[in-house]
Amino acid sequence: MISSPHIPDFLLPSGFQFTAVSAGIKPSGKPDFAIVVADEAASAAAMFTSNRVTAAPLTVGREHLRSSGGRVKVVVVNAGNANCATGEAGVAVCREVCARASATFGGETMEVFPSSTGIIGVPLPGDKLIAALPLAKSDLGRTSGHFDRFAHAILTTDTRRKVSARHFTTADGQQVKIVGVCKGAGMIHPQLVPHATMLAYIFTDAVIAPEALQALLGEAVESSFNRISIDGDTSTNDTVLLLASGAGGVTVDATHAEFREALYAVATDLAKQIVADGEGVTHVIELQIEGATSDAEALKVAKAIAHSPLVKTAWAGTDPNWGRILAAIGYSGVHIDPDRVSIWFGEHEICRNGGRSASFDEAAAHTYISQPEFRVRIDLGAGHGSCRFWTCDLTAEYVRINASYST
Amino acid sequence: MISSPHIPDFLLPSGFQFTAVSAGIKPSGKPDFAIVVADEAASAAAMFTSNRVTAAPLTVGREHLRSSGGRVKVVVVNAGNANCATGEAGVAVCREVCARASATFGGETMEVFPSSTGIIGVPLPGDKLIAALPLAKSDLGRTSGHFDRFAHAILTTDTRRKVSARHFTTADGQQVKIVGVCKGAGMIHPQLVPHATMLAYIFTDAVIAPEALQALLGEAVESSFNRISIDGDTSTNDTVLLLASGAGGVTVDATHAEFREALYAVATDLAKQIVADGEGVTHVIELQIEGATSDAEALKVAKAIAHSPLVKTAWAGTDPNWGRILAAIGYSGVHIDPDRVSIWFGEHEICRNGGRSASFDEAAAHTYISQPEFRVRIDLGAGHGSCRFWTCDLTAEYVRINASYST
């Protein structure tokens, strides 16, 4: 499995302080309130879920970014309660928490960016968050320990922190740092649009205007967070926020190749960590779809496979049952000629031109897909469209996690 | 749960004989080859899966119906092997079995309708089916015992036979009988089109021309088999066949109210039996979607809910977590105003205008959805479109059944 790297102090972009405290939202009493404070309001870009039901913090966060012209001084994130389907009262509580956060940490209320994750339809106890603000303030810091606490407090059913970092040096010897942190293990099929219960926060010390930042984020998200699925359930709270403090002094525009590459690397690394830590996941699968009539058609095929309970349970059982994959391709809605479809598990050809490959070796295929990470490559034989997509198996443990209900 | 009624002899439409034998396709040695022989070639209508990958028997069956002008003398069904993704060889084997069946039971080869269900991608041992034809012939009969053996032999992961019957008496005292039989427990989300691994066979003794029969079948299937989902996987082999022997002497056209009603009742009863016997199913849920801008939009919402692993696992855990339902509505692709959505579990109002209902009683809701069958009603508050849809929970047992693979 992909491990969570530790981010050493020297890789953290300057201009940001982090912390997390226990506000009493999670019944377990674990840290559940995570805060980032920028030294000076940072340039900001965000993307949110395309679900038509969206949580109160998304309404408020969108409004704040618009009012502030893309500036964020404080990020407040609570876990344990999604503040979704909570009506006008949910929006009012969110606004109040933002107002009190700006009073505590400085800046304007519209420079506070809120996020929530957890159960839907239960009123958020904003007073608990507000009461925890002074302790959070006394505890802010720039160390990897502080960053790790932030990364830990935003988790829900996740089993581990998800962080990623990249940096590069410019021609004149200046450093640009990018660090990302995210959470998410269930209700994961982010379909983020520019205006996304996965939460991801990426920080950089580059100098970037909000418009360029939004363009860079959109491009990175499309090939990373928008290319993963655990269960096909698109959340009401998904959010990706990218903040640029400018404290590093290097100016970056939307076409900056090294920055784009580093940002894409961080976003993809985080996205894959989410899949690897998905609820009950025992196998991570990279789907590589080729030969589609367009990239969009390739993506449709990838999603049909990634959302097929029969394909996903076969993977859980390390069963090289490629017929289920072929069936999912068949109902994906894409125009295909079954007689031109070929399937490989890694380097093992399984299906050729719609039928069992002459070289199909069931035992070898079984051994290959017994690995915790493997690749399924499909050639539709119809054109030049392609995509990469990351997904996982469906295990009895996923069902146990999501069916557990005690009265 | 819905029980499998026993069909007494006097409810079986005249003009048909039934049997089933063990041909050795199922590794268990259980009966796996089921045959119907009409006294005279019956008027026939069929619908097949919309999956673009289709099994050899669908290719051959479609061709035979076209050549014969909608006449079927013999139906041959094997379980244990889907004869899908088997290429030209699969089609050739299927043709050979049909040719030998017509030689055995009479009629033309084009009057033989073949079906297969079971694993995809493995060559069908047609010689075993052919070798079993003489025994099958010696064993044909018109009793409910013969019919039950047919119903039993077509099963795969099903745990019980699925049969249904309706009859009515015309104004001048004549009887019309309709009896149906089907199988299917996994890879169930039939999307049948007139030209579906669910197999269903419906027989009547009415006199009906093939064109009228096709119209009647299309109408009945749209509100029954096309309104169920176990796992969202649309099979490569789904087929519904309706045969009219004419032996009862009552002439029926496409607008005959009593026949339409009786046919719809049989089709709906069979469809619901499939859901109730779905792999690992512990709860059957009737979704009633109302207030959509169109019936098609209502259906989209029903399918998003029926295919959400999070909603289905909550049902498995009898968890009245309506937030997951609201999230699924939100990503269904339908234009909704979340603030107008209301949800009931039976008579219990759970969500009103997008938020928790003031009368929400979690314990009562939990008790209600602890029943083996329950209803979820959703009002989108947007128009007059509606639909009914039947689905089920997702249990660890479903995963166990489909992830079991022994090398």
TrEMBL record, chains A, B:
The molecular function terms in GO held by this entry are: L-glutamate N-acetyltransferase activity; L-glutamate N-acetyltransferase activity, acting on acetyl-L-ornithine as donor
Site: Cleavage. Where? 196-197
| E.C. no | 2.3.1.35, 2.3.1.1
Instruction: Give the primary localization class.
Output: cytoplasm
UniProt xrefs under Gene3D superfamilies: ArgJ beta chain, C-terminal domain, L-amino peptidase D-ALA esterase/amidase
**InterPro entries noted in UniProt:** Arg_biosynth_ArgJ, ArgJ-like_dom_sf, ArgJ_beta_C
Q: Name one GO cellular component term.
A: cytoplasm
Active site annotation, chain numbering: 197
- One Pfam family named in its UniProt record: ArgJ
The reactions it catalyses are: N(2)-acetyl-L-ornithine + L-glutamate = N-acetyl-L-glutamate + L-ornithine; L-glutamate + acetyl-CoA = N-acetyl-L-glutamate + CoA + H(+)
Binding-site residues, substrate: 156, 183, 197, 279, 402, 407
Question: Which GO biological-process labels does this protein carry?
Answer: L-arginine biosynthetic process; ornithine biosynthetic process
Extract the SUPFAM superfamilies matched here.
DmpA/ArgJ-like (SSF56266)
- Where found in the cell? Cytoplasm
Task: For this UniProt record, give its keywords in alphabetical order, as a comma-separated list.
Answer: Acyltransferase, Amino-acid biosynthesis, Arginine biosynthesis, Autocatalytic cleavage, Cytoplasm, Multifunctional enzyme, Transferase
Judged by the first EC level, this protein's enzyme class is transferase
Q: Superkingdom of this entry's organism?
A: Bacteria
Annotated pathway:
Amino-acid biosynthesis; L-arginine biosynthesis; L-ornithine and N-acetyl-L-glutamate from L-glutamate and N(2)-acetyl-L-ornithine (cyclic): step 1/1; Amino-acid biosynthesis; L-arginine biosynthesis; N(2)-acetyl-L-ornithine from L-glutamate: step 1/4
The feature of type site (Involved in the stabilization of negative charge on the oxyanion by the formation of the oxyanion hole) is located at: 117-118
Subunit details for this protein?
Heterotetramer of two alpha and two beta chains.
Which protein family is named in the record? Belongs to the ArgJ family.
* PANTHER family, alphabetized: ARGININE BIOSYNTHESIS BIFUNCTIONAL PROTEIN ARGJ (PTHR23100), ARGININE BIOSYNTHESIS BIFUNCTIONAL PROTEIN ARGJ, MITOCHONDRIAL (PTHR23100:SF0)
Function of the molecule: Catalyzes two activities which are involved in the cyclic version of arginine biosynthesis: the synthesis of N-acetylglutamate from glutamate and acetyl-CoA as the acetyl donor, and of ornithine by transacetylation between N(2)-acetylornithine and glutamate.
From the Swiss-Prot or TrEMBL record, give the protein name: Arginine biosynthesis bifunctional protein ArgJ
